[in-house]
TrEMBL record:
Alphabetized SUPFAM superfamilies for the sequence: PLP-dependent transferases
EC number(s) from the headed UniProt entry: 2.8.1.7
Domain Aminotransferase class V: 4-365
Native organism: Terrihalobacillus insolitus
Protein name, UniProt field: cysteine desulfurase
Molecular-function GO terms, alphabetical: cysteine desulfurase activity; iron-sulfur cluster binding; metal ion binding
Segments passing through the bilayer: none
Length: 380
């Protein structure tokens, strides 16, 4: 029985071309990028080229890109770093109830440090209300953090409208774009974004790498102490081979984004059609008119997450109940709880399926048939 991977929102398989670009660096370019001799200069050149490629992918300047160990570190640096650096302007931060835990737990930490956090609710469509955001802003607000695409539901927030709302306010606008990067076109200047988080392993690059875009002039404090790497904002010797792989993954997504989106939409339509044909009762969580095609969150009435995921795994189907960072937990999804309420059955009977490089049409057809069979059996 062939195993089928439908959990690309958790992580993605590394692209063969990414591996091919990384191997020569691992074998030949071992110099420290901070060294001034030829070995160091060779490594530094790799970093400089990668930084430029990545910056251009979001309409930024290469000086505005900080390499990190991943999305979590970038989120922490954005939220905590900007909070500390701008305490003279206020100690109020606005975020949402459906953020990744990298933001929510960072916000909880800041609350313990005396900061005030406003957590915006979302409606059943999984999106915030712009009027509620506007009402939440005060003269003390220094950062607004709203994720671009939700990692559990695929819902897209009104990022452009948020950017426009904040243009005349002192607050910086940070967005966790980990699930959006590579799927949606992003221009930080047109969208009014001051800080943006992205991650390599979500776009078929190596794990342990991400970046934080910091608009020129934005004040953030470093959270770690050491050398002067990454413009004194993130010390530590850079992962040169990994960053080369990250660059290649970005180049690939730049060349194939529209094709990928169309393919994912085809996978999604096919998957749902087969479930319908097989007579499966289900509901889609969120508003598909404001969602990416690579992520779908489905409620199966009369079932529970733990039973479904166990049976899916035994049948060779890799899916998720939501965030990979809470995998193994059967607690209700905080995202679905925010959308529908803590007591709603959707919080404990919903599965996230996410499509990507590991899939083809035959996989989707076979996976949908297996899922349909399991849901019918579990409900009986």
């Amino acid at each position: 029985m062939k195993s089928i991977y439908l959990d690309h929102a958790a992580t993605t398989p590394i692209h063969p071309e990414v591996i091919n670009d990384m191997v020569p660096v691992l074998e030949e370019t071992f110099g420290n990028p901070s060294s001034i001799h030829q070995y160091g200069r060779k490594a530094r050149q790799i970093l400089d080229v990668a930084r430029d490629v990545i910056a251009k992918s979001i309409g930024a300047n290469e000086k505005e890109i900080i390499f990190t160990s991943g999305g979590t570190e970038a989120d922490n640096l954005a939220l905590i770093g900007s909070a500390y650096a701008n305490m003279d302007k206020g100690k109020h931060i606005v975020t949402t109830m459906i953020e990744h835990h990298a933001i929510l737990h960072a916000a909880e930490f800041l609350e313990k440090q005396g900061f005030t956090i406003t957590y915006l609710p979302v409606n059943e469509n999984g999106r915030i209300n712009l009027d509620e955001l506007s009402s939440a802003l005060t003269d003390e607000t220094t950062t607004v953090s709203v994720m671009h695409v939700n990692n559990e539901t695929g819902m897209v927030q009104p990022i452009k409208e948020i950017g426009e709302l904040l243009r005349e306010h002192q607050a910086y606008f940070h967005t966790d774009a980990v699930q959006a990067y590579g799927v949606l076109p992003i221009d930080v200047n047109k969208l009014g974004i001051d800080l943006l988080t992205a991650s390599s392993h979500k776009i078929n690059g190596p794990k342990g790498l991400g970046f934080l875009y910091v608009k020129d002039g934005v004040r953030i404090d470093a959270l770690q102490y050491g050398g002067e790497q990454e413009r004194k904002r993130r010390p530590g010797t850079e992962n040169v081979a990994g960053i080369k792989g990250f660059q290649r993954a970005v180049e690939l997504l730049n060349n194939t984004r529209e094709e990928k989106v169309q393919t994912h939409q085809m996978f999604l339509d096919l998957f749902l059609k087969i479930l319908e044909t097989e007579g499966i009762s289900f509901s889609i969580n969120g508003d598909r008119d404001h969602a990416v095609s690579s992520i779908i969150n489905i409620s199966f009435p009369g079932t529970n997450v733990e039973s479904l995921l166990t049976n899916f795994d035994l049948a060779g189907i890799a899916a998720s109940s939501g965030s990979a960072c809470t995998a193994g937990s059967v607690e209700p999804s905080h995202v679905l709880s925010a959308m529908y309420g803590d007591s709603n059955e959707r919080t404990t009977n919903s599965i996230r399926f996410s499509f990507g490089l590991a899939n083809n049409r035959e996989d989707i057809e076979e996976a949908a048939m297996r899922v349909a069979s399991i849901v019918q059996r579990v409900k009986r």
